Amino acid sequence: MAGTNGFLPFAYGTSANVLSDEAYQSALAANGQYANGVVQGQASSQQANKTWLQGTLMAAVLGQIIADMGQNASDSQSIATLEQNLIAALRRSSLVLPYDSSFANKVGGYPSKTIVADPTTTGLFWVSTADNNLTTPGADSASWVNLFAGLISEKEAEATYFPLTGGNILGQAFVTASFSQGDETTTQPIGAALGGLQFYLQLTNDGAANTTYGRLVLRDGAGNYHIGIQIDNVGNVTDSQGRPFLSKPEAADTYVGQGGGNSDFSVQTAGVTKKTSIPWVSYVDGDGNTQYLFMQPAGNYQPAGDYVANAGGTNGGIKAATIAEATGSPSFQDGNDNWHVVQPAGNYLETDEANQQGVVGPVYFAQNPTGTTAAFGASDKSFATTEFATRLNSGRLRGVAWFGSSGVYYPPRVDPSLIFRVRLVGAGGGGATAVPQDAYACNAGAGGTAGSYVEAWFTYEQLFSGASNSSVQIIIGNGGSANSNGGTSSIGNAVFCFGGYGAPSTNAGGFSTISPAGAYSANPAFPNGALQLVTAMSGESGAVGLVLNPQNGGQFYAYSGKGGSSPMGAGGFGVGNGTPGAGGGRGGGGGGACGGWSSSGGSGQQEGGSGGNGAAFIECYEGIT
User: What is the pTM of this model?
Assistant: First the structure.
């Protein structure tokens, strides 16, 4: 039970009228002020309250410690009594106290490894396994463990174990129990065992055939009986299910040794044969059924017209077979007298029985059977040869890749037999810029040249510059800005398509009736050669710009040239007075710009159109044979 604390703090509220710690320390340090106490007329209310707070707060803390440990603290007590109560509280706080939930909440939980007594069970102690532990000892998932977990009392040890030192052991070596199995039995325990185990020797004088007259029995701690070995009434030693044990001579007469050496036995055993078949060897499967392997020599096989039946599709693919020429073939007979024939080489056709196949001769064995390759379009059920399968798959499309920007191409697999159809175009050149002109004049720019283009077939080694390389770098050229050339597109070192030329800018300070376009772009290049070239061309040149003056000194009319087109994209279209050039499509040149007309001259500049970026299109095929 907690005591009472009569020491209470003075002026400790959050809004108390006291000096701050800094102000209080400063006042004490200044010329020893307050060293001799408060001088009349000197102390303010804040200073006095601070002084009282300093003393009463610590007195309240010490008083609360005394009260928490079950003692009283009051200023009405003598100094000796307060000292005695404080010492008692400190001593009690060092003891192992019962678990107290209110104390735990007050201190923010028990620390790890704190030991507390169980609040209800005497002699039961708990150890905290976590810091700030607010859980209750003994509760589910609580962070406490029994202090004595894993220990055993002396009384429990004496009842469970024999002492290691000498002395007398009191107890009953033979315990009473019963075991009933069979007729007219007498059961006798033959030794003591620990943990409830007990061995018994059971005798019986039952004279019936194949019955047991002696057993060694083990009784476990749960009262269950287990038969180890037993002897029947004719002297055979058997297991719990009556299965006999074999002596070494008996085993040698029954089984073939696995360790090598000479064995004296007959491989031909008794069995049901068919059509003079000779049983080759027999064995017993896991289910206890006898299985036979027969060898049927040539000339003694089943003649034409006879059928060999088996147990179904799970044990063989043959339901009925017709043998045109007897050549000999191993066959199996299972424990249910069903026959299974190894499927021989030959032609396989549907029989009259639904979903079954017949066999026509000649019948023979071949490790790698061969046959005649069927023509394309054949609809019979002949097996497909390697040649037929190769021809069937040749030329088949295996993958398509499109590149509108630079990247890496990976084939479906690394295989020198693959071939590739490639279409590649370089970037187009930029159209001409129309610069400002004099009064009553204007200029029209020409279009840019298209990038060069190729369509061709390549072998794996040509496209990837080697038979074992697994990827190739793709570079896509960028279209040229006004008056600038387009970039080159390439696939590794196999093929290059060059960019188109930019059209030259128009002249300033005058006008030209015709603005010339750029030259054709260069032809594509194939450093590794090509399997088959379909087409290769330089880029189309852009159209010229035209200016007309039908009024002879009056207003001018102009129209810019369009950009050159590629097989993958059109060139930028032509425009009229005061309009910038149009951009080109994939590989196309940019259209020329057209300047504005003004009676005062100096009309604004118009930029030529940008050429289109290059592109690549790759198709992968199986090699065509």
Answer: 0.41
